[in-house]
Fold this protein.
Amino acid sequence: MGKSNSKLINQLFDFKGAPLLAVGVLALFYLEKRYALRKRKDSLRERLKTNSMVSSTAIVALRLSLIPALVKAAFLAGERNLGLLRVLRLPSPFNHIISFLLLDYGSYRWHKLNHRMPFLWRFHQVHHADLDLDVTTALRFHFGEVLISVLYRGGWALLAGVTPRQVLVYELIFEGATNFHHTNLRLPRHIDRGLARLIVTPRMHGIHHSVVRDETDSNYSVILNIWDRLHQSLRLDIPQDQINTGVPYIRHHANASELMVMPLQPKAEWKFPDGQVPLRL
Ligand SMILES: [Zn+2]
């Protein structure tokens, strides 16, 4: 890790972005308690305990591994003159816009892969096994998922040829968007609908966390939802009070130690414990 890269991470991530994200999480936590979108099934106190334990492992992996790797990959792209944007040499505003789009498309692809590849799903199910969905779910990832993402997302940043600053700024917006769309916040319908023309909203992501297979297999986008539109995986038609959140084969509150060893178990069938397949009637 070069000195200039560490300095950039310090300045942009540690001293500006991360504190701002933390304030945002507290604000969203307060707001979603006041204006709830979906009824809770599980105890908030228990979930707070579990989700903060699992999230803290993800945060350490993010800060010590993913963030430095993304910056390093972008740095290498610059040093070796690699990657699409280094070849295209677009003027500044276009360069920033395309870098953002490329990185956001990479996030879509990575998320979708987590659902499609059984090995990756072993880790990603830890995030989806939450019986409720709110801002505390936003960082509830198995640290293994974050570590594996280094390869894919680092490689993508290198191939895109983005700069270290671009990848860091994108990552901060990515984290902010993730916190936002996981919230259980009842935005006025017209605001949610307006935002959903462009970005992922809490209602939209709520559908992705449904136990119904078709609904989980939709809405993979992280910031912009154009990727789901292009791949025809966008769904906005499920009322939130009809969503059963989680994965069908785990219907109890799985605690942190259970979640930590979950990736060691083989992929479970997409069925309720009683053998029924969740369907939307
Ligand atoms: Zn997912």
User: Anything to note?
Assistant: The chain has one domain: 3-264. The CA atoms of residues 135 and 142 lie 16 Å apart. The chain has a mean pLDDT of 95.
